[in-house]
Hints:
The complex is a heterodimer. Chain A is of the alpha+beta class. Helices cover 58% and strands 17% of the residues of chain A. Chain A has 15 helices and 18 strands. In chain A, the strands form four sheets. In chain A, strands 1, 2, 3, 4, 5 and 6 form a six-stranded antiparallel sheet that branches. A five-stranded antiparallel sheet of chain A has the order 8-7-11-10-9. By secondary structure, chain B is of the alpha/beta class. Chain B has 13 helices and 15 strands. In chain B, the strands form three sheets. A seven-stranded mixed sheet of chain B has the order 7-6-8-9-10-14-15, sandwiched between helices. In chain B, strands 2-1-3-4-5 form a five-stranded parallel sheet. Chain B has a three-stranded antiparallel sheet with strand order 11-12-13, with no helix packed on it. The model of chain B is unreliable at 1-13 and 18-22 (pLDDT under 50). In chain B, 44% of the residues lie in helices and 18% in strands. Classes of the chains: A alpha+beta, B alpha/beta.
Amino acid sequence: MITLRSLFGRKTATLQSLLARRLVLAALLQAVLGMLLIATLLAPALERQASAATLAVGNAISRQLTDRVGQAYLVTQSIGRQLRELPTAAPAMSGRFLALMQAQVPALVTAYLLDRDGRIATMVSSEASDAQVRQRLGLDLSRSPVFALAGSSEGGFSEPFLSSMSERLMVAVAYPAGAHGLLVGEIGFTALSEELGLAAAQSGMAAMIIDRNGRVIAHHDRNAAGRAGQLSRQQLASLEGDGVHAFALDEQEWLAAATPLDSRGLGWRLLVLKPREDVLRPVRMVILGSALASLALVGLAMLVSLGLGRTLSLRVAAIARYADALASDPAPAFEPAGVEELDRVVTRLQELSRAVREREHELREANQELEAKVAARTASLQQSNRELGEALEAVRRAQSDLVRTGKLAALGSLVAGVAHELNTPLGNALMAASTLQDESQAFDLRVQSGQLTRSHARESLERLREGADIIERNLERAGQLVSSFKQVAVDQTSEQYRAFDLRQVVDGIALVLAPRLRKAGVRLECQLPTGIEMRGYPGPLGQVLSNLIENSIMHGLDGRSDGVIHVDARLIGDTQVELTLSDNGAGMSEAVRERIFDPFFTTRRHSGGTGLGMTIVHNLVTGILHGRIEVQSAPGDGTAFHIRMPRTLPTPP
Amino acid sequence: MQRRLSLQAVALAPTGLLAACQGRTPLAIGFLGGLSGKFADLGTAERNAALLMIEEANAAGGVNGRPVQLIERDDGQNAQQGQQGLRELAAAGVIAVIGPATSSVATAVVPLATELGLTLISPTVTTTQLSGKDDAMLRVCADAEVYGGSAARLHAKQLGARRVATLTDLANADYTRSWVGAYAKAFGAAGGAVAASIEFSSTETPDHEALARQLLQARPDLVALACSSVDAALMLQKLRGLNAKVLIACSAWAATERTLELAGRAAEGVYFEHFFDQQDRSPAFVGFVKRYRERFDAAPGFGGLLSADATNLVLAAARAGATRDNLKRQLIGRRHPGIQDPLSIDAYGDARREAHFAVVRDGKYQATGW
């Protein structure tokens, strides 16, 4: 369906609309070009032709009429001259001259001689009766413009005027005839109008003569000739200049050629008029014809585009269907369209289809390979994953083992220490007890033997008392040790949150490690003040101290007999505690110091060091104790550990 | 200015006409008057004056932007021709018609104009027959009653005339009879007597000499002529030829330049009634006369002046938006400006205007100052 909308409305055009658009545009263009050609070439040519013809006719007629009018003057002049020669003669004589003049100028209606006073002396008329002529004789024309011509020696023409003789428009030609006065001929325009009428009839044009004021003095149409026609200023203005002009008259448009009719300063003009319609009609016909032809062409264009468009779109649709078919069936049937370009498209489509299939095949194979690879990788990845998982598990177990072992080790050493320490007071107590036994036995003997003296009894009682004191003191000491150890053990094996005095914890650790210290020849000096109350986890704190001391013993003070470890603490503000542990050992190099907290880092692997001690210290300080640990050390300068931690840790949930 | 046919004009002539039809159509004013025949000078002067007024209006941009066009028809001093001309003017769509020039044509065409619904504004029709009538004709001059009557009174008073002999041209009887009738009545009322009342027809080759003798036979103090320029001029020549002393007066119809031209010396001392003041030096009047003379190489005369007044009336009404149907209503019962003096048009379309009087001295009209 071709609608205007379908032609110009959509963005993507159908074949039909595209064709229609183009063809219609071409047709319209042709129409416009045609009109332009007509306007620029045909119309001016026709105009020129018409103008030339009109002008030619005008020139011809005006030449003729000028001669005629000029002739009238010449005759008047000749007669006038002849009269001049004559002595003053009788009216009859002059009358004959007048008659002669009239004979030679057919257009002459009245001829008369005006005397010096301007009165009519003699007169002949081709119209008036004798009686009327007689009546006119003696008439005073002194005030008439005709008489004014008496002033010029060569006479001439008057302006057209309404004659009282003939009672219509006339022009007077005059020549001073000496003593006879002024010879005047009144010429009518009827003859001129008749001439115009003839010429007009022959050439098919209208014609008129106008005087210098635009008054119509002669007209090809005799009815109009009698009327005092007058051209308006606008009409006169349109006639200015040479050549042919556009001219409006009687509600019609004309082509007018104005040629001068100028004899002896008459200032008349001959207008030859051709109806503009005559010029325009052929042009209009051509334009109309051209317009119709264009219209037909546009219609044809639409039809052709309809047909052609339909055919093409059907063929193209067939190709589209073929393309669809190719998608499923590798070699569908095809009929050639009979249009080269379209068939080429089909061939290309076939090649395209083949190429596509090959690629498809390649792709599928590649895809399969890829899948296999992916599966393999996945499997191996899964395997690695599993192994990693196991390894991780092993590591975790090792870690917890280590921790447990550490803890057990700590506990073990703790027990060993406890046992060791207890030996002394218990040994002392045993010794004292045995002494007491001996003493009591001795007393007993004395009693039995009756050799007990007062002084012996006093001495024995004194010795018994001393002995009991010693036992009591030592057993108290043992009890203290046990409770102290118990606390440390509990602390060590549990992560119990409680309030504690820092000094107490430190002392507890010192006690536990006493044997170790003694064995290593290291003196532990606790310089920290009492009264530093803390709330937190004393167990881990004790572990930290323990490990640090152990570290100093093993590394810094190894092989030394004068090793000293200082333990000091101070409050920083109200909320922080700084615990310092320093030794006068060998110190560490920067390389070692940097790695001291690294897991499994040890400079003493082969002597049984796990390399985890310091790591545990770092973890505990930064972890559960919420603190920081810094190490200062230089080779030969000893080592100092500064632990800064909050006094009060948040209560556990 | 050269005006060649332009390409566009030719190729698009149809569209040009179409455009012209819509909105820039010229305003057409009609003219009906005697453009041929014996009295053609009056009609021509009236037509020329109307044309001049229209040309000047066009030069000033037209009427409300529309160009004005004069469509003329010649009545040939003929009732039938006048009626035909009027019909053609009505068909041409004119807004109003200036004219006719003469009373005899007027009485013939006024009923038709009323029928056609077309308004006539006559410059110089003075017949009393159309006075006091609610018809299609408006005037810019008073009627013969006024002119004839005042002439008679002044002649009696200023010239001391007691016996008058009148001459009436029957070719324009509607005017001349009105005038002579009014004159006789007023002359009688002023104590004078009409010694002779002679009628002739200028269309029938009158014998002016015989007429002159007839008039003088009655031994009048004053001869009053109610005829046109040509006849008046010839009568003056003949009367003077016979009697150098008798007072002669002419009605305004003969008060033209042509009479002076044709009468020659016989016009000296003759009294003329005028439709306007010859001595007026007002710029409007002087300017008008000058422009008319430049354009047409002649004097406008009373016909030209009155026709100019009539045309200006129509132009003014058109500017105020009048149409053919309401033009008359817009003009009657009002005072209007004239070139020389204002004029009032009453409800019947008759105008009040003054008569002026002149005497010929040295071949020129001179106001008497009556």
